[in-house]
Amino acid sequence: MRLSRMFAPRTVVHAHCDLPCGVYDPAQARIEAESVKAICEKYQANDDPAFRERAILIKEQRAELVKHHLWVLWTDYFKAPHFEKYPHLHTLFNEATKLAGASGVKGSLDPAKAEELLGKIEEISKIFWETKQV
After folding, report:
1. What is the rounded CA–CA span in Å between residue 6 and residue 47?
2. How far is 23 from 130, CA to CA, in rounded Å?
3. How far apart are CA 38 and CA 32, in angstroms?
4. What is the per-residue pLDDT for 34?
5. What is the DSSP letter of 65?
6. Residue 99's closest CA among 24, 37, 16, 27?
7. Which of 12-16, 18-22, 29-33, 76-80 has the lowest mean pLDDT?
8. CA-to-CA distance for 131 and 68, rounded, in angstroms?
9. DSSP code at position 19
10. pLDDT tens-digit profile of 43-83?
């Protein structure tokens, strides 16, 4: 047997970080979404082309982070019993991640779209904290 095979891990796991810590919080998505909204507002108030170009780039990066944090909650934290108790949870996550994507804030500079995303994240957050009370 080759030495590298002998020391290779037998089980591969995937987590949102290098160590499955079990720490989840929708606040991560909310903070990034608040950043997106603030960037949209600043973009609207500034006519400088260089500023606007930079704002778009940063907004799109933050929108991608929103999607990442939502996906982590959706796929890693919430389990079957949660989806049974809250049957609209899949739809809520789908709507929120789409709002964070190209058809939402990633493809728009409208602060109202970002506010809509924040509303979905707040709904997810309420359910999240209800599940933590159990």
Report:
1. 61
2. 16
3. 10
4. 98
5. H
6. 37
7. 12-16
8. 21
9. S
10. 999 999 999 999 999 999 999 999 999 999 999 999 999 99
What's the burial of 41, exposed, middle or buried (CB within 10 Å: 0-12/13-18/19+)? middle
Residue environment code for 42-55, b if the CB has 16+ CB neighbours within 10 A, otherwise e: ebeeeeeeeeeeeb
99-124 as b/e, with b when 16 or more CB fall inside 10 Å? bbbeebbbebbebebbebbbebbebb
Residue pair 56/65 in contact by the 8 Å Cβ criterion:
no
Overall average pLDDT of the 115-131 stretch: 98
Specify the DSSP class assigned to residue 14: -
How many residues does this entry show for the chain?
A: 134
Residue-level pLDDT at 12 = 57
How far apart are alpha carbons 57 and 50 in whole angstroms? 11
Q: For residue 128, count other CB atoms closer than 10 A to its CB.
A: 19
The C-alpha atoms of residue 50 and residue 33 are separated, in whole angstroms, by 23
Tokens linked to 108:
């728009």
